[in-house]
């Protein structure tokens, strides 16, 4: 048998033969593979034999029941699956150029990010790209990574936190999310422009749902002080927490963008003087996986918004970096 070379492989083997090889692997028998690929069994056998000759190794172990890939055959099959997956991605993307940007994009994010940023921008994207079907999946911040890696979502918009391992992601900066403290108007802490968390936690505290990234940050900060958060009230979101502060029932921490622009006469907004109060929101896709033209169009629109945190670094999504 001859020695395998990339040059010889690409010149002497056509894609149909490589597809036939994979079909034999899947069917475990040349005859069944030939039927599936609509080719005579004798012609299929000849193509497989020629492929083995070019490869210089035996690709199948023959037995009375059929053909089982050898160790070399398993290696070839693994690479061919990736090859045909990439060819399908290429076909789909080229088709999008001729047909206009279309397709389906599943976006995973948290409720807070959806309310604060994404709802308006996704609405603008849908008007600009009416042929793209968007699917929104809301989940806990820590679940978004698994959703991207498993393929349940194409794009995740997540808050960077110690619980998030970004290694499996290609990502780009999207927004800077700042946390602020709200205290009732006339409260002793309201006379200053910022407040330390150690001072705030001594007051009756209005907490939000414990599964949120915000409360994870708050609980972590409390543990660092040797304390535990013991909320006076627990509510579902920032609007409810703000209402209780307005009623003078305690203090809270909320994302700055969730505070209405118009000044309230019933509470004061203080900067939270803690490093963890400045949080990065990023857009992530599965590392090394090329994204579709539709997903690229969405990511481009999100990152080109005037408020986007373009000053941050990151590995560009969909560039195939590893």
UniProtKB/TrEMBL annotation:
Domain HTH lysR-type: 18-70
InterPro entries for the chain: HTH-type_LysR_regulators, LysR_HTH_N, LysR_subst-bd, WH-like_DNA-bd_sf, WH_DNA-bd_sf
Molecular functions per Gene Ontology: DNA binding; DNA-binding transcription factor activity
Source species, domain of life: Bacteria
GO cellular component: cytosol
UniProt keyword list: DNA-binding, Transcription, Transcription regulation
Keyword DNA-binding (UniProt): yes
Pfam (any one): LysR_substrate
Residue ranges crossing the lipid bilayer per the database entry: none
Family classification: Belongs to the LysR transcriptional regulatory family.
PANTHER family found in the cross-reference section: HTH-TYPE TRANSCRIPTIONAL REGULATOR YBHD (PTHR30419), LYSR FAMILY TRANSCRIPTIONAL REGULATOR (PTHR30419:SF2)
Record's protein name: LysR family transcriptional regulator
Organism: Cupriavidus necator (Alcaligenes eutrophus)
């Amino acid at each position: 048998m001859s020695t395998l070379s990339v040059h010889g492989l690409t010149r002497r083997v056509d894609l149909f033969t490589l597809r036939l090889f994979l079909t034999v692997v899947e069917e475990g028998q040349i005859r069944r593979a030939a039927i599936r690929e609509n080719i005579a069994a004798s012609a299929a056998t000849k193509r497989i034999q020629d492929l083995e000759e070019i490869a210089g190794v035996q690709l199948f172990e023959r037995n009375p029941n059929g053909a089982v890939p050898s160790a070399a055959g398993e290696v070839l099959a693994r690479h061919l699956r990736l090859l045909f997956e990439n060819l399908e991605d290429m076909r789909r993307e080229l088709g999008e150029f001729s047909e206009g940007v279309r397709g389906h994009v599943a976006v995973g994010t948290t409720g807070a990010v959806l309310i604060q940023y994404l709802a308006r921008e996704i609405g603008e994207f849908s008007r600009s790209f009416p042929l793209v079907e968007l699917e929104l999946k809301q989940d806990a911040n820590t679940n978004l990574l698994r959703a991207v890696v498993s393929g349940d979502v194409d794009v995740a918009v997540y808050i960077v936190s110690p619980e998030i391992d970004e290694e499996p992601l290609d990502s780009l900066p999207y927004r800077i999310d700042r946390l602020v403290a709200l205290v009732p108007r006339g409260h002793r802490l309201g006379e200053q422009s910022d407040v330390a968390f150690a001072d705030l936690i001594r007051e009756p505290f209005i907490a939000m749902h414990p599964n949120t990234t915000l409360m994870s940050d708050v609980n972590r900060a409390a543990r660092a002080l040797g304390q535990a958060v013991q909320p006076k009230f627990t509510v579902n979101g920032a609007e409810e927490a703000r209402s209780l502060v307005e009623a003078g029932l305690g203090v809270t921490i909320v994302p700055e963008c969730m505070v209405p622009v118009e000044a309230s006469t019933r509470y004061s907004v203080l900067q939270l003087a803690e490093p963890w109060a400045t949080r990065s929101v990023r857009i992530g896709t599965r590392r090394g996986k090329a994204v579709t033209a539709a997903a690229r169009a969405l990511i481009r629109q999100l990152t080109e918004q005037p408020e986007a945190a373009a000053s941050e670094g990151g590995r560009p999504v969909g560039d195939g970096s590893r």
